[in-house]
Write a structure and sequence with these properties.
The chain is built from 12 helices and 17 strands. With about 425 residues, the protein is α/β, with parallel strands linked by helices. The strands form 3 sheets. The protein has an 8-stranded mixed β-sheet, with helices on both faces. The radius of gyration is 21 Å and the shape is globular.
Length: about 425
């Protein structure tokens, strides 16, 4: 049985203001998209009384925690939208539904999934969860005129121009900057890096962190890599971190590596410093092996998009409460980002007066629109990436406890 965890807020350290994602607010008047007339709206409206959103993610396999939580957040948003009367297009309201495809965390399966959705006439898609899978389908989205919002694909290369690809998460270069800024602000003078050279997510974060560290004057005393995210032995890499005297090691891996392999082996090698990762580290607590010495997870930190403890307004608290009531657990980062993707689509469809992919894309491309969401208040930049702050989260263990604690520590900014 996997270890459960407690979420604890370090009071006084958090200042991020969050509200639940509702209708978008416009910061300034924006050009109206095409198809504003009643005739055009009627022509672009979906047939029947429902609008189907495609949803692609790893619903099975080693990364299933990502996909299933994105789905949970998205379905909660759909349930709330439908209960409030649906999406208003012209003088008619439409209910939302989803067509879910399991990409198993595999790029080929992800490509098959979006092709199947396109064949079914779906032009608004949420997905996928990982950068590698999402990168396999961006060209299809652009060539077919299908809007694609990835909740958690953070690779910079996914959104480089204002095309059909958007996201509700921040991007890797920003995560890398936040992580390096934290290391600088906390006074770490000797930094190590262990990453996967063959993985889009891990290598991209390594590049971003290294670039930011150079600008901030941080000394990288050792850097080691593995050739596959399926690697289970990190002993040699951390022996070298210890030999180099690293005080903090940047570890951009996913939770299914961190929990059972990387963290225990780093400690076994004698590394007692901070292990600092990015958003993929979230959910590490679900992969801690039975019987593990839980003290090894002290000082395991990661940059993230969202922390439940920050949901302090009435509407954002409602998101947490309704999620907990529906699923019997508190929402995590991926729940919030999936939730936000649906509500961004709702706002864009209502702004466009259409559920057509091209019209929705034009609405999303309006960078003056401000979205108040579960993961924060943001506008899209010129590439379709939100302009956000981040949050630092960490794991800790107290002697005698039966579980590790996941704690929201503070808001992170590059300012």
């Amino acid at each position: 049985m996997k270890k459960r965890f407690l979420s604890v807020l370090l009071t006084g350290t958090l200042a991020l203001s969050l509200t639940a994602c509702g209708a978008a607010k416009e910061a300034a008047p924006a050009a109206e998209p095409a198809a504003e007339t009643a005739e055009a709206t009627e022509a672009a409206a979906p047939e029947g009384d429902t609008i189907t959103l495609g949803l692609i993610g790893p619903m099975t396999g080693s990364l299933a925690v990502y996909g299933t939580h994105i789905q949970s957040g998205a379905e909660l948003a759909i349930e709330q939208i439908n209960a409030d009367g649906g999406v208003k297009i012209g003088d008619k309201a439409y209910m939302l539904t989803t067509e879910v495809k399991d990409d198993q965390g595999d790029s080929t399966e992800c490509l098959n999934s979006i092709n199947a959705l396109v064949s079914d006439g779906i032009s608004l898609v949420i997905g996928s969860a990982t950068s590698g899978c999402t990168s396999a389908i961006t060209s299809v989205a652009n060539s077919e005129g299908v809007c694609l919002i990835t909740p958690s694909g953070t690779s910079d290369s996914l959104t480089t121009t204002m095309d059909y690809v958007f996201r509700t998460c921040f991007k890797d270069s920003f995560q890398g900057e936040l992580a390096a800024k934290y290391a600088k602000d906390e006074g770490f003078s000797k930094i190590g890096i262990v990453y996967c050279s063959a993985d889009t997510y891990s290598a991209g974060l390594r590049d971003a962190f290294t670039a930011a560290a150079g600008k901030l004057g941080l000394e990288i005393v050792a850097e080691e890599s593995v050739a596959s995210m399926a690697e289970v032995d990190y002993s040699n890499q951390f022996n070298k971190m210890v030999s180099a005297g690293a005080e903090l090691v940047f570890t951009p891996f996913y939770y299914d590596v961190m929990g059972p392999y990387l963290v225990p082996q780093a400690r076994q090698a004698g590394f007692s410093g901070v292990l600092l990762g990015a958003d993929g580290v979230d959910n590490t607590e679900t992969t801690i092996p039975d019987g593990m010495d839980l003290s090894v997870y002290n000082d395991v930190l990661f940059v993230n998009h969202y922390a439940t403890e920050l949901a302090t307004s009435d509407v954002s608290s409602k998101f947490v409460t309704t999620y907990t009531d529906k699923y019997g657990e508190t929402p995590n980062n991926f729940d919030a980002l999936g939730y936000d993707a649906v509500l961004v689509y709702k706002a864009a469809m209502e702004k466009a007066g259409s559920a057509d992919g091209a019209a929705v894309q034009a609405a999303l491309a309006d960078t003056s629109v401000v979205y108040d969401c579960a993961s924060g208040t943001f506008s899209f930049d010129e590439t379709g990436t939100p302009i956000k702050t981040g949050v630092l989260v960490g794991y800790s263990y107290e002697a005698g406890a039966s579980e590790v604690t996941k704690t929201a520590i503070k808001v992170l900014s590059v300012e």
